[in-house]
Recover the amino acids of this structure.
């Protein structure tokens, strides 16, 4: 019984990491930028979702999730349009763009502190509190819904990338921007779409995490790092790897907190990360491909 | 005047001015802040070697900075070792620990960044959780002031001169290193690793050496910090500190030692200057950071050089 609850918790938090990691991987594939403000997009999505809940307390959970996603999506587009694109147009070195994303992250954290204060903010109950019974095992509805949302969102993203014209163009741009441009892809617009989707994923993750724990102006920092680690765990720049990496990181973190040491739960993930980077430089997906 | 000579005389003038500063008896707080600039500059110089010269992106320098600080603090507070021993031991211990991480210099780009980041988080967790050794979240207290040859550097002016002297020594050593055979070899690695290897440069060895030297320098800086502030908490050595050191290098100008010092001054002093605007200060700092990135790879140092160009004749 206990194990089932633990597993559900691990998978739910894993979904949150997966969504953040997806954003990292998409931006990395399209622009090679390590987007340090990704965690802040998560935080701002979480805060926006909470604010809409304050205004309209009766809003269903799905609507809150969509509000958070839209807010983060718009913010991500604004970041790309106002900061990263001008930087790229001036052809500054990649390192400078990456540092600019750190600046963006500092800006967002402090703006959020001014707007929402520095206290952790609790989400109201988004889901019913009576436990669901799945095959006789009681599981908290929150966790079930978060997993469901996570899986649906990732499924929709895959459908979008594989089945729609825009999605395919985005994939092409990520593979080889110059060739894609020669074939008539609009690079500027595809970059905007990439950031919009990455932002929306982060926003959804923010609302999910907020409803599980709380919203806090500094929450994006650690969650961003964990998302980045998850993206690397799966293989940098691979979308399937990012999803897998997120879930795996959630599992490792939860189970090592319980069975090894809660003080060192993050450490185990990091040791594993360094080991994977050393022995499997292309991540878990690389292992899969080497076999297949 | 030739550009290289102009630079050399400028360096000399700046160093003299910094050394003469205590004569004007500035406020204690000013001296303390300038000492912190010198300490940060030392750490940033180490990262400049790693990132600016050899092209390896590390966002884990705070790990070695923290190891140096705690090593020095523990050796002098718990074992009563003299400052000079603790100081060099801090650098050596940081360098030895960095040997564990040497295999990761095989990695490049983002993978190296994540691996160093992971290591930095590991070190932070150890500093926070091993209470018997580091005092845990309560921090490490009772670190004595720095002392040289039996004289305690009790006056802020003396502590300041020590920090500036160490920063200057690291600066001048790295300047020599940059122009040596070693410096040229790592420059070749930064520009094109495969081409450098084809020319017979021992890429892996040199990259590892850069990593260890950068860790040694960060350890020295950490030791200075421990004896300057005399209280260490694990929160001083989080991932943010690594990012701060990285910002110093990029904002000042990649590949420029003088830039690393300028960047340290900007990162340490600008938030203090902005204290006037209260809550908005970090907001403005973030915005400034993004604007400076528009200057391009040269950073502030490159910008200044462009301003100075009219005054120096081009080389014949």
């Amino acid at each position: 019984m206990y194990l089932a609850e633990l597993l559900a918790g691990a998978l739910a938090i894993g979904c949150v990491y997966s969504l953040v990691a997806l954003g990292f991987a998409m931006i990395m594939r399209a622009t090679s930028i390590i987007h340090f403000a990704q965690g802040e997009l998560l935080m701002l999505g979480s805060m926006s979702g909470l604010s809409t809940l304050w205004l309209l307390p009766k809003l269903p959970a799905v609507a809150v999730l969509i509000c958070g996603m839209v807010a983060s999506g718009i913010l991500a587009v604004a970041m790309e349009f106002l900061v990263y694109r001008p930087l790229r147009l001036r052809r500054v070195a990649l390192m400078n763009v990456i540092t600019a994303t750190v600046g963006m992250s500092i800006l967002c954290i402090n703006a959020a502190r001014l707007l929402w204060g520095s206290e952790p903010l609790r989400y109201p109950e988004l889901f019913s509190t009576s436990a669901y019974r799945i095959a006789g095992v009681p599981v908290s509805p929150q966790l079930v819904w978060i997993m469901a949302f996570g899986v649906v969102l990732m499924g929709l993203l895959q459908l979008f990338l594989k089945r729609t014209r825009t999605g395919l163009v985005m994939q092409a741009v990520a593979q080889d921007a110059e060739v894609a441009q020669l074939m008539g892809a609009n690079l500027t617009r595809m970059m905007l779409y990439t950031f919009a989707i990455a932002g929306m994923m982060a926003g959804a993750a923010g609302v999910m995490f907020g409803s599980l724990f709380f919203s806090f102006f500094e929450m994006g920092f650690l969650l961003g790092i964990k998302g980045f680690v998850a993206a690397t765990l799966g293989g940098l720049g691979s979308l399937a790897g990012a999803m897998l990496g997120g879930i795996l990181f959630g599992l490792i973190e939860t189970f090592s907190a319980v069975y090894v040491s809660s003080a060192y739960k993050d450490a185990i993930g990091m040791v594993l990360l360094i080991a994977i980077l050393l022995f499997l430089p292309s991540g878990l997906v690389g292992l899969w491909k080497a076999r297949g | 005047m030739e550009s290289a000579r102009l630079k050399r005389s400028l360096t000399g003038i700046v160093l003299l001015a910094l050394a003469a500063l205590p004569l004007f008896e500035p406020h204690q707080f000013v001296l303390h802040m300038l000492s912190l600039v010198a300490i940060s500059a030392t750490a940033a110089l180490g990262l400049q070697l790693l990132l600016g010269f050899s092209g390896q992106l590390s966002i884990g320098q705070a790990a070695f900075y923290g190891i140096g600080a705690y090593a020095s603090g523990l050796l002098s507070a718990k074992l009563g070792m003299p400052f000079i021993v603790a100081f060099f031991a801090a650098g050596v211990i940081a360098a030895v620990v960095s040997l564990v991480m040497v295999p990761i210099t095989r990695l490049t780009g983002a993978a190296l960044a994540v691996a160093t980041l992971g290591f930095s988080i590991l070190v932070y967790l150890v500093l926070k959780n091993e209470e018997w050794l580091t005092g845990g979240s309560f921090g490490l207290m009772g670190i004595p002031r720095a002392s040289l040859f039996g004289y305690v550097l009790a006056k802020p002016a003396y502590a300041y001169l020590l920090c500036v002297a160490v920063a200057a020594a690291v600066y001048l050593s790295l300047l020599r290193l940059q122009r040596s055979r070693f410096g040229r070899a790592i420059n070749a690695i930064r520009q094109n690793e495969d081409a450098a290897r084809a020319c017979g440069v021992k890429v892996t060895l040199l990259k590892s050496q850069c990593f260890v030297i950068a860790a040694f320098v960060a350890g020295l800086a950490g030791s200075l910090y421990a004896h300057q502030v005399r209280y260490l908490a694990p929160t001083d050595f989080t991932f943010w500190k690594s990012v701060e050191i990285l910002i110093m290098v990029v904002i000042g100008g990649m590949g420029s030692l003088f830039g690393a010092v300028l960047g340290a001054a900007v990162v340490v002093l600008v938030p203090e200057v902005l204290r006037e605007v209260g809550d908005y200060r970090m907001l403005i700092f973030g915005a400034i950071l993004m604007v400076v990135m528009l200057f391009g790879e040269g950073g502030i140092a490159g910008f200044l050089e462009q301003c100075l160009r009219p005054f120096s004749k081009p080389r014949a």
About this structure: The radius of gyration of chain A is 19 Å. Residues 2-127+134-291 of chain A form a domain with the ABC transporter involved in vitamin B12 uptake, BtuC fold (CATH 1.10.3470). The mean pLDDT of chain A is 88. Chain A has one domain: 2-127+134-291.
